[in-house]
From TrEMBL:
Source species: Enterococcus gilvus ATCC BAA-350
A single cellular component GO annotation: cytoplasm
Keyword Secreted: no
Subcellular location: Cytoplasm
NCBIfam families per record: T6A_YjeE
Name of the featured protein: tRNA threonylcarbamoyladenosine biosynthesis protein TsaE
UniProt record similarity statement: Belongs to the TsaE family.
Main location as per UniProt: cytoplasm
């Protein structure tokens, strides 16, 4: 379990994730509204060397940021009810960048085969406190998780 004291810590975890990412890594962000998914993604972008403003892709579904060490594919699939097969998401999941997928559970059968899930939860007592749990689904994601946790523990 990773404890995030505030938005600065959430962004710092994001930076670590960005530095640890390799091509074709997929990160699924799961958590309620306000859990810190977009804040985390801003940190990921910084870790990848992307200084462009990061906005939630709620209405566009996918935002691509190409100017970092790796491309960042930021997806928000909350509004997807069916037809995910028409989006060509596999091209992103197996591509040359890092795919960050908010509300990934909405994809059902269209989830990537190998992905790391980060469960973010808000604390009931402290509105600034978040907790994160990393769950690897595949060998590539297990290695991704290990790189993240090692960097987090040594920061």
């Amino acid at each position: 379990m990773i404890t995030l004291a505030d938005t600065t810590a959430t962004e710092e975890l994001g930076k670590i994730i960005g530095v640890a990412a390799n091509p074709s890594n997929n990160l699924v962000l799961t958590g309620d509204l306000g859990a810190g998914k977009t804040t985390l993604t801003k940190g990921i972008a910084l870790g990848l060397g992307i200084d462009q403003m990061i906005k939630s892709p709620t209405y566009t579904i996918i935002r691509e940021y190409q100017q970092g060490r790796l491309p960042l594919y930021h997806m928000d699939v909350y509004r997807i009810e069916s037809g995910a097969d028409d989006l060509g998401l596999d091209d992103y999941f197996e591509g040359d960048g890092l795919s960050v997928i908010e509300w990934g559970q909405q994809l059902g059968d269209y989830m990537p085969e190998d992905y790391l899930e980060l469960l973010l939860s808000k604390d009931d007592q402290d509105e600034n406190l978040r907790r994160g749990e990393l769950l690897a689904n595949g060998e590539r994601s297990e290695r991704f998780k290990e790189r993240i946790l090692k960097a987090w523990e040594t920061k």
